Amino acid sequence: MANTYWHKQTADKPLFPDLLWSRPETKKARGKLLIIGGNSQGFMAPAQAYQEATTAGVGSTRVILPQQVQKLLPKNFSEMEFASGTPSGSFGRQALAELLDAASLADGVLLAGDFGRNSETAILLEQFIQKYSGPLTLVQDSIDYFLANAQQLVSRPRTLIVPSFTQLQKFATASRFNQAFTSNMDFLHFIEALHEFSEKHQIAIITKHLDTDFVALNGQVSSTKPSSDNNEIVTAAHASVWWLQAPNKPFEAITTSLI
Prior knowledge:
By secondary structure, the chain is of the alpha/beta class.
């Protein structure tokens, strides 16, 4: 018997066309996104996320970087804001109140990556997702920070991760999933594994396998053949924006963002 949880989407046959024509028309109604990321050694991920969120049609965006990054940017680079950091240029624990205050004014948060490896940043991110309850998307090395404590993410409602395939493998193992995601998995077995994982855990996933983008949430899986080879940051930014604009239809919105 054919399964009922796999939904195929193509560019010319969107699964949820109503979301395409019912997007908010006014800028004010298009949602407010907070993007967090970067360190003094690299901040391309939040910068790219900002550009892609704008392209995706977000209403407004705030980008917060560690304070030490400010001296590395042109003085007229007014799009970025800054929060307390460590001497090494990463986010410090003292930034928690600043990030939570900014998140309280947003409709959703994207942890865009380039956080670097820092023990204080690890504590900050763990405390942030404990205290922030709104829609949250994680991509790039923000996911790596939770591989040692995957249960904290998989049990969190309104959470989306956009992992590379390698990150997905590690995340599934860390969350004690009883089936391994392998690179030689065929299409149907991969879909079945995503279905079982998302039935067990609350978290939503976008990942790529066999040149196809997959979304999994609440046991439902969609597959989309991408028209371009976007990286995870581009995918995460577009998904975050669509999710802001259809907060009560996360599976539908995230799937539609891939067209």
